[in-house]
Amino acid sequence: MSAAPPGLWPWQEKSQELPEGTGTFGLILFFVTLSVLFISSIVGVLVVRTRFSEVSAPIEFPAVGWQWSTLCLVLVSALVHIAVRAVRVDNIRVFQTCMIGALLAAVGFLHFQGMFWGALFEQLGPLSASVESGFYAVAMLTILHAAHVVGGIAFHALVTYRSLTKRYWSLQHGQVRAAALYWHFIDGVWLVLLGFLMWIA
User: Fold this and answer.
1) I need a labelling partner for 32 at 20 to 30 A (CA). Which of 26, 182, 192, 201 fits?
2) How far apart are CA 79 and CA 143, in angstroms?
3) What is the separation, in whole angstroms, between the first and last Cα of the chain?
4) Which pTM value belongs to this model?
5) Which of 142, 97, 99, 152 is closest to 121 using CA atoms?
6) Which domains does the chain have, with CATH numbers?
7) Is residue 185 within 8 Å of residue 148, measured between CB atoms?
8) Which 8-state DSSP code applies to residue 131?
9) Where are the alpha helices (DSSP H) in the chain?
10) Distances from the Cα of 67 to the Cαs of 108, 113, 116, 163, in angstroms?
11) Longest CA pairwise span in the chain (Å)
């Protein structure tokens, strides 16, 4: 048994930290799988779009929602980065605050994406969701990304709960690092998708 972290409740059992690098391969494999999923989706969109030389009713990229949702996701990435740095030096209060803030920002991302989708689906009638309009591509890729944000929120909520019950400290915070890496990845994917969707729309 290793020494208990500062502030650990007396009745909480402290388990040994797994060796450094444990789970890294699985995490990398997971990111590679997600990358293949998003890249194949983008390639599929490009293949379909190249079949149409002219678009009779092109989609208008919604002017609302995407700015604030992007800011929320960048904020999540920044906060989890600070959280990891804080837990490494046993600054538990800053760590817990950043984890809660990141969770709220992630929920905020979905809220503003709802505004984005609302503006997008207002075009559904005149466009008739035609393939060549680009409507299907924007809807599919943003919803696909949002589904992974929801998964991230579920895991982050668990890690945040454990942080509030003082399960993590400087020598045991592997799940916190995993959550941070996941959000950095999702943030990067969103920025790439956003640029691509603006281009096709």
Assistant:
1) 201
2) 24
3) 57
4) 0.83
5) 142
6) 24-52+63-200 (1.20.120.80)
7) no
8) G
9) 24-49, 66-88, 92-121, 124-127, 135-164, 174-200
10) 12, 10, 9, 30
11) 69
Q: What is the pLDDT along the chain (201 residues), one digit of tens a residue?
A: 344 455 544 434 444 444 555 567 788 889 999 999 999 989 988 887 777 655 555 677 788 889 999 999 999 999 999 999 999 999 999 999 999 999 999 999 999 999 998 888 887 665 455 555 567 778 888 999 999 999 999 999 999 999 999 899 888 898 999 999 999 999 999 999 999 988 876
| Ramachandran angles phi, psi of 172, nearest 5° | -150, 90
Query: DSSP labels for 66-78?
Result: HHHHHHHHHHHHH
Residue 26 token pair:
């699985």
Residue type, 113: Q
> If you search the block for the tokens 């490494």, which residue do you land on?
88
